[in-house]
Every structure is written in C-alpha cells, then in structure tokens.
Design a protein that fits this description.
single chain; 350 residues; alpha/beta; D-Maltodextrin-Binding Protein, domain 2; 6-stranded mixed beta sheet
Length: 350
C-alpha cells in the first residue's frame, strides 16, 4: 500500500502538464425485471443477429501490408493517453501506427490508456514498450523504475521544443528586474499548475529567492490569462504566465498566453515587461523501455526523425497540438521537472 500511495503522489503531478483526462468509475445499470404478463404472449420470430463490431485494433491479417521483416514476429506495443475516448483516440492515431509499422517492419499495436497512472504502470510492467507521455509523466516513470528512455520530443514549426514560465511587470511601472520585484504583489495560478505556479516557485527557490519572503503577497488566480489581466488592472505588481519566447515579440511570440491575448485584442505587448524567465519546460516525449531491442530502437529513432518529411499526417495523428515533427531530446532538459518529482517524495532514477 505504501508503494501504491507513493506512486499515486508522483503520478498526480504527471497529469498537470498535458491535457488531463479524468475518468469517473463506470456505473452499473440496475435493471428491474418486468412483472409477468397476465396473458401468454406468442413467441416472436427469431431476430437475425447483427454482425460483430470490428475490433478497435485490426488483427495482423486485416492490417495494411507491411514489410517482410514483420514476419519475424516482432511486436511493438505503444501506449497512448485516451481517457474515456479509447476507440476514437485509437482511430485518430491510426496513421501514426501504420507509419511506424511500415518504417520499422514490426507489427505495431496501439493500446489506449485511461490515465497516466495506467500508462506508467503499463510501461514499467512491460505491457507496452513505447509510451507517449507528458513531460511530468515521463520523469515520474523514470523516477519510479529508471527503465525508460526518451527518444523524441515534438517540435514546433519554429523548432522550439517547449516553453517558459515568465514573470511580467507593467511597462509603465518601476519593476524591471527580479530584485526590484522585492516587496511586490505576485499573481500565481492556483492549484498545481506546472507553468503558472510549480515551476516558477521551484525555479526561484533554486536560484536562492524565497518567494514567501521576497514578495509582499501572492494572489491566487484561476489561469495565466487572469494573472496578466490582474497585472494590467493594477491589482498586482507582477504576474506569472507562459510563453514560447520565440517568434515575433509584438505578436506575443509564437505560442502561449501572451500570443492568445494579443490575438484576442486583450493585450498589446508594449504594455508589459519580462522581468524573469524559467528554464525551458519541455514538451512531453516519446519514450521506450531501456531494454527494447537495439535495432528496433534505432528504426524508431530514424522513423520519428523523418516523419515530418515522409508522412506529416502521421505527426498530426499522434500530436494534436500542432507539432511539425520530432527531434532527439537532450535528457538534461527535463531537470526542472525532475526536481519537482523529487520534491514530491520520489527519488531520482538510478
């Protein structure tokens, strides 16, 4: 029970970065038998049974033709997050499954997982050899067993592979540095927001700044947009948001809260000043077990690197956030998230 509790604490963190899928336990319908008929009813003509529904994942015989190398019996099982929409998500991801099957020669099966708890447990127990994680789910799996390895991370069209937490002040105000923010009122996202609360607080503490004493007060808000809105209204002196920090600054950069607010007409970038930024918060990686066959691993790395040129539809099928392709990640980019997982009581991976 202690191990289950320990794992659950870590995996609660894993659900914060990417879109979270929550699932309520299924309810069993209670059926009350009908009262017996007073008058016998003649038997009905037998109904012709409907044909069985097709399986979610077609068997090998019904799958698209694959290279002859699949005849050696190699099977690659990939776990993906699906919440309660397993059949739909598997259908969405089918172009990616076909692409990897064609490029690697292995028979590829995709398995829909309800949540990150199930996905992490499935990879640790070898039910799946390959998983598509959020960044925090990946470092949680890594901390729990040390048996996984990130082989690719999605990249935006401009080449960025993550985003940053940023501390903002008003351009017409006196705060332009972190030191000048001493004694200021800070807007943070409430709860367990990775970019809006947990990363900035951890990064500031790691840099020797104690948020509890550095700022006069912290104001909890519902979202990064609300934090920026409170800053513009003068309700706080500094606010935390997130941004790619790539692309045109006047447009709010290429991606993030500032981009959205500029596009909506709610913000002009000349109203704000960036006081501080965190380390890179990387996107969630594609992860394999460390004991996967080396030849299959090499084939997967090559296939992911070439996906944007060879089959853009496969990229769109597995990454719904607009990634243009995949690149091999430097393991060190997940350092900030490893600190959060370690702070939550999970040790670093051996």
């Amino acid at each position: 029970m202690a191990e289950i509790s320990r794992r659950a604490r870590g995996i609660a963190l894993a659900a914060c970065l990417a879109a979270a899928f929550t699932a309520a336990p299924g309810a069993v319908a209670q059926i009350t038998p009908a009262a017996p008929a007073l008058t016998p009813v003649p038997p009905l003509e037998p109904l012709t049974p409907a044909p069985p529904a097709p399986p979610l994942i077609p068997p090998a015989a019904a799958a698209p033709e694959t290279p002859a190398a699949a005849a050696d019996g190699t099977v690659l099982r990939i776990g993906i997050l699906a919440g309660d929409n397993g059949p739909y998500r598997l259908l969405q991801a089918e172009p990616f499954r076909r692409y990897l099957e064609t490029r690697t020669g292995a028979r590829v099966e995709m398995i829909a997982m309800r949540d990150y708890v199930a996905l992490i447990d499935a990879q640790i127990s070898s039910l799946v050899q390959y998983a598509v994680y959020s960044a925090s789910a990946y470092v949680t799996a890594e901390a729990l067993c040390g048996c996984v390895e990130a082989i690719a991370v999605p990249a935006d069209p401009d080449g960025s592979i993550g985003f940053y937490s940023v501390l903002l002040s008003r351009a017409d105000g006196p705060i332009s540095t972190l030191e000048e923010a001493r004694g200021a009122r800070l807007a943070l996202v409430a709860g367990d927001s990775i970019a809006g609360r947990m990363i900035p607080l951890d990064a500031l503490a790691d840099a020797g700044v104690d948020p509890a004493t550095h700022f006069a007060a912290t104001v909890a808000v519902a979202s990064p947009e609300a934090a920026v809105t409170a800053l513009l209204a003068g309700e706080v002196d500094v606010a935390v948001a997130w941004s790619s920090l790539t692309g045109d600054p006047a447009s709010g950069f290429s991606r993030g809260v500032l981009t959205q607010m500029v596009g909506e007409g709610a913000l002009a970038m000349d109203q704000l000043r960036i006081v501080w930024r965190s380390e890179l918060i990387p996107y969630g990686p594609h992860v394999v077990r460390s004991d996967i066959d080396p030849e299959l691993k090499s084939a997967l790395v090559a296939a992911l690197a070439a996906a944007s040129a060879d089959d853009p539809a496969a990229v769109d099928a597995i990454d719904r956030s607009g990634a243009s392709g995949f690149i091999a990640p430097d393991p060190s980019i997940y350092g900030p998230l490893r600190r959060l997982v370690a702070a939550d009581g999970l040790p670093a991976a051996p």
